[in-house]
Write a structure and sequence with these properties.
- The complex is a heterodimer of chains A (253) and B (191).
- Chain A is α+β, with helices and mostly antiparallel strands and 253 residues long.
- Chain A is built from ten helices and seven strands.
- Chain A has helices at residues 3-6, 10-15, 23-30, 33-51, 60-73, 77-82, 88-104, 114-124, 137-147, 239-248; strands at residues 132-133, 165-174, 177-185, 190-197, 212-216, 219-226, 229-235.
- In chain A, a hairpin with a 2-residue loop joins β2 (165-174) and β3 (177-185).
- Chain B is mainly α.
- Chain B folds into two domains: 3-85, Orthogonal Bundle (Rna Polymerase Sigma Factor, Chain: A); 99-184, Arc Repressor Mutant, subunit A (Orthogonal Bundle), CATH 1.10.10.
- Chain B is 64% helix and 0% strand.
- Chain B has helices spanning 3-18, 22-32, 36-52, 63-85, 120-129, 132-143, 148-155, 159-184.
- In chain B, α3 (36-52) crosses α4 (63-85).
- The relative contact order of chain B is 0.12.
- The chains are: A alpha+beta (253), B mainly alpha (191).
- At the A-B interface, α2, α4, α5, α6 and α7 of A face α1, α2, α3, α4 and α5 of B.
């Protein structure tokens, strides 16, 4: 044990958490005045930290708001129970999303697009956890093929011709189906993609594959029929900007 | 018992177990977030997630440690995703604090400050200036009184890493406070 190495053990020495196998720490300190001084100084620091009130008080109004949000989230709980039996961290993603979403967009829960709107807000607030963060369409398609809803093509739309790079994908529990939400960015804007069977959803698009653009919930949507699937893209950028970017690109979605 | 009753019972147990720890969560969040609003948001998300995952909480274990683990996970996820929103596609964790932030080992001035004369706000300020990984270890173990094992779970790292971060963090903090003290003219008693 050297003095430099001891610097990683001081806390354990002071707190009495060193194990049997760490006897070399004690024997070093016993023979080293400098490290004994270090231990003394850290002991004083530790005692100080533990004797003072160094955390701010929880303001009353913050406490009230927290309690109110818990009450409000209560309705989301039943959905979560149903989604509980997912594999590993994937379930966690959906549950966290469902929980936070209740708070973020109360009042726009009913329409067929509202789950996707919620996902977008989660992503833009930094609260959407990727099931898989990857720039590889192949990797994401593997994940979707393995864990996505049966019957939904694992296909991941390539938006690179429009200047959006793949960031990753999240498997989410939407009403009546397991959605796979793909996230893209161009460094400035986010684009989310939802992809599902045309006969499944309340959302439809012309069979000729002509994309439809519209605004809802403060976001721009692009809906397009791809074979027997529907591809929905959503972004915050203005509809004309989004249309131009998508229109310029001869992408495969 | 009907599903409604089940949900209500879960909520009652959750409130009894988790709500007493609200101010601890806020305290920990305040050291992670830049301002009180973000800290409150982080606590809110933590509590909502905790409620959803409450079936995973083992009764009789340390609920505060469990909640703080969720808080840190939420913080890490948010941190990554918010960088994404800003277009930073590289979502790697920040690297370890540079050695320059740590007082050098060769600094041999044996003068010990009278720590008891430091004001709470000075300690809080100094702690906030530490790199996040060292600050979090101190907040969880010294301020929130978690064990090393519980701290390791919250931070998602081995126990030895908690010990090392705590050791280095306390040392940095002590050196910072010593510098403050020198500025203010506080010296070792009798020096």
């Amino acid at each position: 044990m050297t003095c430099e190495e001891y610097l990683d053990y001081v806390a354990g020495d002071v707190d009495g958490t060193l194990g049997e196998g760490e006897a070399s720490v004690r024997s070093h300190v016993a023979g080293c005045a400098r490290c004994r001084l270090e231990r003394e100084r850290q002991q004083a620091m530790r005692d100080l930290l533990r004797s003072r009130q160094l955390s701010p008080e929880l303001p009353t109004e913050v406490r009230s708001r927290l309690l109110a949000s818990l009450q409000e989230s209560h309705a989301g709980g039943r959905r979560a129970v149903r989604a509980r039996r997912w594999i590993g961290g994937i379930g966690a993603t959906a549950l966290a999303a469902a929980a936070i979403a209740v708070v973020i967009v109360a009042g726009s829960r009913s329409g067929p697009l509202s789950p996707l709107i919620r996902e977008y807000h989660l992503a833009s607030h930094g609260a959407l956890k990727m099931t898989l963060a990857t720039g590889s369409r192949k990797d994401l398609e593997d994940l979707y093929g393995k864990y996505g809803d049966e019957g939904i093509a694992a296909h991941v739309v390539d938006l690179s011709p429009a200047g959006f790079q793949l960031v990753g994908g999240a498997l989410e529990e939407f009403p009546g189906r397991r959605a796979r939400i793909t996230v893209y960015t161009d460094g400035e804007h986010l684009v989310l993609c939802d992809y599902f069977r045309a006969d499944h959803a309340e959302i439809d698009a012309p069979a000729d594959g002509e994309p439809q653009f519209f605004r809802e919930g403060g976001l721009s949507f692009r809906v397009r029929r791809v074979g027997d699937h529907i591809c929905i893209l959503v972004t915050r950028m203005p509809i004309e900007v989004f249309r131009r970017r998508m229109g310029d690109a001869s992408h495969s979605g | 018992m009907s599903r409604e009753d089940d949900v209500r019972a879960t909520r009652d147990v959750f409130e009894a177990e988790a709500l007493p720890h609200l101010h601890h969560l806020y305290g920990a969040a305040s050291y992670l977030c830049a301002d009180p609003h973000r800290a409150a948001d982080l606590v809110q998300e933590t509590m909502l997630r905790a409620f959803r995952f409450f079936h995973l909480f083992e009764p009789g274990t340390n609920c505060r440690a469990w909640l703080l683990t969720i808080l840190h996970n939420t913080f890490r996820n948010q941190y990554r995703a918010s960088r994404l929103e800003r277009g930073q596609v590289d979502i790697d964790e920040p690297g370890p604090a540079s050695e320059a932030t740590e007082a050098s080992l060769s600094e041999t001035n044996p003068e010990t400050i009278v720590l008891s004369e430091m004001m709470d706000q000075e300690i809080v300020d100094a702690l906030r200036e530490l790199p996040e990984e060292f600050r979090s270890a101190i907040v969880l173990v010294d301020l929130q009184e978690l064990s090393y094992e519980e701290g390791a779970r919250a931070l998602g790292c081995p126990v030895g890493t908690v010990r090392s971060r705590l050791s280095r963090g306390r040392r940095m903090l002590e050196r910072k406070l010593a510098a403050y003290a020198r500025e203010r003219g506080i010296r070792r008693r009798g020096a």
